[in-house]
Amino acid sequence: MPRLIIDEREIEVPEGTKVIDAAQRLGIVIPRFCYHEALGSVGACRMCAVKFLQGPFKGVQMSCMIDARDGMVVSTTDEEAVLFRKRVIELLMMNHPLDCPVCDEGGQCLLQDETVSGGHGRRRFRGPKRTYRDQYLGPYIKHEMNRCIHCYRCARFYQEFAGYRDLGPLRIGDRMYFGRFSDGSLESPFSGNLVDICPTGVYTDTTARFKLRRWELERSPSLCNQCSLGCNTAANAHHRGVMRVEARFNSEVNGYFLCDAGRFGFSYSNGGTGHRERPLSPRIAGAPASAHAALTAAREALDNIAAKYGPRAIAAAGSHRNSFESQCMLDLICRTRDWRGPVFFWGPEDRRKTLSAVEGLDGEIAVSMREIEKADFVIVVGADPLNEAPMGALALRQAARKNAPVVTIDPRPIFLPCGFEHFPAAPEKIERYLGMLVWKAVEKDAARFGKDAEEFCRYLAAECESCEPPAAMARLSQLLASCSRPAIICGTDVTLQTTPAFAADCVRLLRLAGKQAGLFFLLPGAGSFGSALLSGTDDKTFADLVEDIEAGRVRALVVGESDPFHHYPDRARLESAMSKLELLVAIDYFPSETVRRASFFYPSSTIFETGSTYINQEGRVQFAHPVHCGGVPIRGGEHPPRVYSDLVPGGDHLPAWKALWQIAGTPDKDAGPGGISPEKFIPAALPAFDGLKAGHGYPVDGPRLLTAKAGFQGKWERASADARTGPENPEAFELLMVEWMFGTSEFSAWSDSLDAAAAAPHMSMNSKDAARIGLCDGDTVSVELDGGAFEIVVSVSDRTAEGVLVIPRHHSFEWRKMKDSPARVSAEKIRKI
Amino acid sequence: MPFKYPLVLFQNRKPDRVATLDEYRESGGYEALEKFIGGGISPKEVIRLVTESGLLGRGGAGFPAGMKWAAVPDSSPFPRYLVANSDEMEPGTFKDRMLLHVDPHCVIEGMALAAYSFSGSKAFFFVRPSYESSAAILERELENARKAGFLGNRILGTDFSFDIVVHRSGGRYICGEASALLNAIMGKRPNPVKPPPYPTEKGLWEKPTVVNNVETLANVPHILRNGPEWFKSLSATEHGAGTKIYGISGRVSRPGAVELPIGTRLSEIIDLHCGGMASGSKFKACLPGGASTRFLTPEHYDIPMDFEDLKKIGNRLGTAAIMVFDQNTCLLGATLNLMEFFARESCGWCTPCREGLPYMRDLLWRIENGEGKEEFIPNLRMLCKQVWNSYCALAPGAAEPVISLLDFFEDEVRQHISEKGCPFHAKADH
Amino acid sequence: MLPDELKFKLREMIAGAESPREKAIDVMFAIQELQGWMSDEAMVEAAELLGMTPLELEELATFYDYIYRSPVGRYVIKVCDSTVCWLQGHQRVIDYISSRLSIPMGGTSADGLFTLLPVCCIGYCDRAPAMVVNNRVFGNLTPEKIDRVLTQLAEKADFSGSE
After folding, report:
1. Do residue A496 and residue A552 come from a single domain?
2. In terms of residue numbers, what domain contains C104?
3. Residue (of B312, B299, B253) closest to B409 by Cα position
4. Does domain B331-427 have CATH number 3.40.50.720?
5. Of A492, A680, C45, A184, which is closest to residue C53 (Cα–Cα)?
6. In which residue ranges of chain B is CATH 3.10.20.600 found?
7. Nearest to A520 by CA among A389, A420, A628
8. Does the residue A64 lie in any domain?
9. Is the preceding omega at residue A221 within 30 degrees of 0, hence cis?
10. Domain containing residue C88: CATH number
């Protein structure tokens, strides 16, 4: 480890550390424009010049280009280096417009900061300033090329780091331009990061443009709760509205970046308009009511039901969207009041998959996104990272950039922004392919794997005997055999119930073969891991509640941040069940169908307005701090109602757990409304939280709630698979409902900011299947299900597995017409129109 | 013409046409290939002989050719590539074109031998668009060489296979920089890339690649045929080796390319081999090695034109493209013109070059056009110093004429400022 | 739309390369030979042949001097404006061509035959002032010689070989 002296302070750094990073470890931030830790050094801007006084290099040199070495003595404050940097600024400012007052970057501009701190103040260059024509880059990013200082960060992030190919450097010399071939929306769903990494105002956030200055913002460390990864964000609010979300560095989770869904999908929290208007006022039977009246009335109504039918006639439902606080509160209430539930899962498959993922993961095999980047072989099974966990796709790309082979085994026509080999596989074939790939890689060592693995090895060997592996599999197995840090990314949406456990066992087998193998699950939502931890043993899901309601066993339903109408696959049945309820209490921030139908509604705070805990899919506990108090935002000249009151307009909302606590009534006299806090009720629900203080009390990178060692799961028997693959009509297609990055989630349904990115839905199918039933790419078909028909455009590809129809749960059409889940549909039910 | 020295590279020079394969063979061409490749002499021996001969790269940097080949590690992967750099966009430079138009097979044989030395199997001949005629000649002669068995699969029945393709450039100065050149061939933007890794380890498509100048390659067959001692003896100085093609242009009677012992004195080159200065012209200064070298003043008119001696006076032999200026040339105007060139050709990668060169161009333009101010002079000096710390050698090269203008002709620059215009405008006819 | 014949030729050319992108310049040169310049449509088609996105090809097209992204005349006259040609009166050459064809620097003659552009050193310093017309070089330029060349070009006369 080289030891060097920077500004008279000694430091020892790992081999290969650049001097600029070594200095940063000492708290010395050397000015830079092109250098970015995630993008590496390219030596383009020449801003990070320092003086090397002793050692192998001498004189003014770029600190980003030189590795720290023993015996180096470096000065960042040397007169010559300071002057050099000042002149670099002068050169950059030759053409940079002095438009800071009308530039959205003003106040958070690296160029502005370094111009001022570098001491450049007078433009000596007498020539005209260069100007460019800007391009239209889509709804999220505004282009202002005149401000460009040509640091290449944008192109390097966009092309090298993220793997998209429609933005880059054009022309040469001082005419250099960064843009697209022609005007049009940026293709990358990671485009928002351009705003963060551009050191000046070339790329600004269109959605936040001209609304605020950085120093006017309330800012807090927050989290993204739109998928299970738990990316860290910085939320920015102003005048009771969230104005902008930025990526926040977390070395283990998202690194420096964020996907566009996470960045721009916050508009639901700001009110919205029309049918997307955020419900901020409590309601009784649809009519606005005061907070006190609504809570009291709901509590009384629930008490009446309990008195009339007993407490088991009341059921509670949460969802994958809940914070862990809400989930623990639902758990507490149901336990103490003997209500049914809480249920967090929509159906038994859903539940078992998430539970087996959480059970199969342990501290030894769980890997973070950062570790995925370092993997030297990645197998993606039953997962579509770009759609289900976009930042995961970016992590995969980093592995692929270091030449890690990436293999996907999935029924969907997967796209990833990197090179990968795709094996289209219907859900019931995923395990088989994965098994073959892994077995062929470890087979030769199997004899020494020991007793635990014996049965699994026998099973895999038999599987491999029974069928021919797809071409290319053997070669990939060889590569897998020779790698040292493989990782498996396993999804829980389209997979069989057994697949998560199967994937976990494959990872264990790879570890027995001497590899640092890791496992990374994708779960349905930000709250899924928490749901699984609290799910208990009664095996109940929302599907059971529907039966209970239909049978009259449940008369009242309390839903906390959950919208069955969005998720439940049989809309007609759900409607009829819900109409049988005597009482529906809804607590939410979305203007959902459930909220619309609720007898009592209480508005809950969004992640931006309340401190909330989320446990991501690798078991990492993280906390989102509140950024503002919420309420009716002041925007566009509109002012909230001028009512003389000491309350914030629209400020009645409460964290869901508080509202739940209040409507559930106080169980004992000692604990009044103020007498309960997450610090008490979370550990009560989950002892693992003993000693963890919510919020600032969590360690920075989050503790991971994982068992030390889970061992082989052994749940790979084919029973459930057989149950699923035994339809009366084997020719029938399996309908796979899937998530898209834009257009399928609840956040996407209620955030108008995401509309622009949402593509029209289409149904993917294999080309052979399409030819068999006479369909072509682009045809519109009517698909008739048990509960009715819907129309959709067909997209034909060799990359979709045979025998499946892949359809997004898109909010733009009604797909919830399935009596069974997963549903099957025979060829004659698909008609071209 | 008074050629009193033995010609090597230009021995087959014809007044109006290209030497044929047969003519090249009659002069001993392809003997080295037959002896070394055909005779299965170890590639290491090729490297040893060329290293011993003292052949320095003729592209401008003067790196020992044999050492570059030896830098390809024995254990490195295949295929290995050779690139002949005929981008030749340094203003004033045209020697490689002359070579191609004189004796293309000399280059072809040199490439085969160079590739043999590090087991290269494919070469790219990188040529600029305005040399389309050279490209066409080469493509024609490559075919002839293939037919004769000097190129292609299993050359002369040995296990060594090697072929050459012509790669046409889209035309940019920066493509002459070796790492930018490799990017250009791979169809990437030709920005330079700093080593490590060196191209000899990871070049084209991550495979070992050697980039040599065309003139360097053309010397190889002669060295191998006649031995290193012979090559050394060709030099006019003790420390030099071989001949050099000097390209003389500007205010001399007979501009053109001449092959002379390396280290021939500038005075001799101009007075004897170029027919002296043009009529009515007096030597005022020259750029001795292309646009990115320093002005050389009458004081050094007798200097031996080789790497060592020019280095001693703080200058560089560069591409040995001698641009001669006379008493009627405004050297500020010439420098401005050079800066126009460099600013236009900057690839735009790093700040000092992308912004600094246009800044210098602006200052020079203002001085030339009567808008000059005293403070421009220290500012120019400062900029020259600053661009020295650029990513590649383009901007430091661009600063050379400027800094030497200020060093040797500051009075002339000041005259522009005090007279608010170019003192040469009235009298000069350019 | 590129003619099928050309596309076939280009595909063959690309197939012979180490990697398709290597042929990007050759492909654009071949298209320019036929169409004069690289239109947006040609860029999109060429990019597809090369397995590149239009932006990736544009990164190269806009880098190089000899790829034209705006229409040019049938003959592109590029007059060298670097040092030696400057010294030997390149401005007079430009002025002469400019007035003879009635076009400013950068302009295209009304008959669509000629476009006048500057170019940096073309390596014919021994024959300065020089110009390059569609890859053919003419040196030691005098008004008479320019007349001869332009007349020949206009008449599509044979002007084989560089001067």
Report:
1. no
2. 75-154
3. B299
4. no
5. C45
6. 242-326
7. A389
8. yes
9. no
10. 3.40.30.10
Residues of C in contact with A172 (CB under 8 A): 62-63
Selection from A414, A349, A385 nearest residue A488 by Cα = A385
User: Could you give the ipTM of this predicted complex?
Assistant: 0.95
- Hey, what are B105's tokens? 């097979």
A779 and A656 fall within a common domain: no
Smallest CA–CA distance, residue A46 to chain C, in Å, is 22
Nearest of C37, C29, C117 to residue C72 by alpha carbon: C37
Among the four given CATH numbers 3.90.1150.180, 1.10.10.60, 3.10.20.440, 3.40.50.11540, the one describing domain B21-232: 3.40.50.11540
User: What pLDDT was estimated at residue A668?
Assistant: 53
Low-confidence ranges of chain A (pLDDT < 50): 669-670, 719-720, 722-724, 726
How many angstroms away from the CA of B134 is the closest CA of chain C? 10
Select from B216, B218, B288, B176 the least CA-distant residue to B63.
Answer: B216
The enclosing domain of C41 has a CATH number of 1.10.10
CB proximity list for B350: less than 8 A, separation 6 or greater: A43, A44, A45, A46, B390, B391, B392, B395
**DSSP secondary structure letters along A150-179:** ---HHHIIIIIIT---S-EEES-GGG-EEE
**Are C80 and C57 part of one and the same domain?**
no
Q: Same domain, yes or no, for C90 and C51? A: no
State the DSSP H helix or E strand holding residue A378, giving kind and residue range, or none if neither.
Answer: strand A377-381
Report yes or no: B366 at the A interface, CB cutoff 8 Å: yes
Residues of A in contact with B197 (CB under 8 A): none
pLDDT of the residue at A720: 46
Question: Distance (Å) from the C-alpha of residue C146 to the closest C-alpha of chain A?
Answer: 31
Q: Residues A517, A381: one domain?
A: yes
Is the CB of residue C33 less than 8 Å away from at least one CB of chain B?
Answer: no
CATH of the domain at A819: 2.40.40.20
- How buried is residue B266: exposed, middle or buried, by Cβ count under 10 Å (0-12/13-18/19+)? buried
Q: Domain for residue A477, yes or no? A: yes
pLDDT in tens, A732-760: 999 999 999 999 999 999 999 998 899 99
Based on the fold, state whether residues A746 and A680 are members of the same structural domain.
no
Asked if B94 reaches chain C (Cβ–Cβ under 8 Å), the answer is: yes
DSSP string, B131-149: GHHHHHHHHHHHHHHHHTT
Any idea which residue has 């295929």 for tokens? Answer: B79
Residues A368, A310 share a domain: no
Write the pLDDT tens digit of every residue in A325-375.
999 999 999 999 999 989 999 999 999 999 999 998 998 999 999 999 999
B279 vs A688: which has the higher pLDDT: B279
Amino acid, single-letter form, for residue B393: A
Task: Give dist(CA A785, CA A794) in Å, integer.
Answer: 16
β-bridge pairing A780-785 and A788-797: antiparallel
In A1-60, the residues whose Cβ lies within 8 Å of chain B are 43-47, 49, 60
Cβ pair B9, B243 in contact under 8 A = yes
Instruction: Answer yes or no: do A578 and A675 share one domain.
Output: yes
**CA atoms within 13 A of residue A755's CA, in its CB half-sphere:** 10
